[in-house]
Design goal:
By secondary structure, this protein is α+β, with helices and mostly antiparallel strands. It has eight helices and six strands. Helix 1 runs antiparallel to helix 2. The two termini are 20 Å apart.
């Protein structure tokens, strides 16, 4: 309970600081504007541009920080050419018990990085960033023990779900991995199929991370898939 109160207080303080900064900025721009004359359009234009730039800068900074955060999920030394697809959704306040977050991101590697990954062959897992031994070669282990089964086949014990079309001993899929807490997301058709082929074949590497995440490096397609449900 204390944690929730602290987080709420931090958010309120942050919001108040933003409001105060906007008010101070507005007052400063108004003061500059009043010092100009109607026959000074260039100076007034610069003041307007300054104000718009100042107002937009927090948004731009937030977007840059968000992009860097998303790119940081790709293991070194791989380099990303573009974020090809991204869908992330959350339910709840984002920091309270019971909140849920689900996401699926597809990164396309640069040609040089993809070529490098392919040349590593079976050694690629040892060349990627992360704890030693954290990268495993696909196909993913989805049935060796109860933990593996719960990650990739959370509905195997649910008779209703099995009857609905998820038979026992079916191949692992990203869809089912993301559905393990019942908070699925509408992934664009075909996007998850590529990831399914990567985790079911023997040519990719995967690693589990924080927040119920799994990262899959697919050298053949030159892509990295990041999925999480937590």
């Amino acid at each position: 309970m204390k944690f929730v109160v602290i987080m709420l207080a931090v958010r309120v303080i942050f919001a108040l600081l933003i409001i105060a900064a906007v008010v101070i900025l507005f007052l400063g721009i108004r003061r500059l504007w009043r010092r100009t004359q109607p026959d000074q359009p260039v100076r007034r234009g610069l003041i307007v541009a300054l104000g718009l730039g100042a107002l937009a800068s927090p948004f731009i900074a937030m977007k840059v920080a968000e992009r860097n955060y998303v790119l940081a999920r790709v293991p070194e030394p791989l380099e990303v050419a573009e974020i090809e697809y991204r869908l992330e959704e959350s339910w709840g306040a984002g920091f309270m018990p019971g909140d849920n977050e689900t996401g699926f991101v597809v990164y396309r590697l640069t040609d040089e990085s993809a070529d490098w990954a392919r040349k590593q062959g079976n050694r690629l897992g040892n060349m990627l960033g992360g704890a030693k031994g954290s990268w495993r070669q696909t196909p993913v282990d989805d049935s060796s023990d109860e933990t593996a089964t719960s990650l990739w086949h959370p509905y195997d014990r649910d008779a209703d779900m099995v009857a609905a079309g998820l038979p026992l001993r079916h191949p692992p899929t990203i869809f089912e991995y993301l559905e393990k807490y019942g908070f699925g997301i509408p992934i664009e058709k075909g996007r998850d199929q590529e990831a399914d082929q990567a985790i079911q074949s023997g040519e990719s590497f995967y690693s589990y991370g924080k927040g119920g995440s799994v990262t899959i490096v697919d050298p053949g397609r030159g892509k990295v898939y990041f999925a999480y449900a937590g």
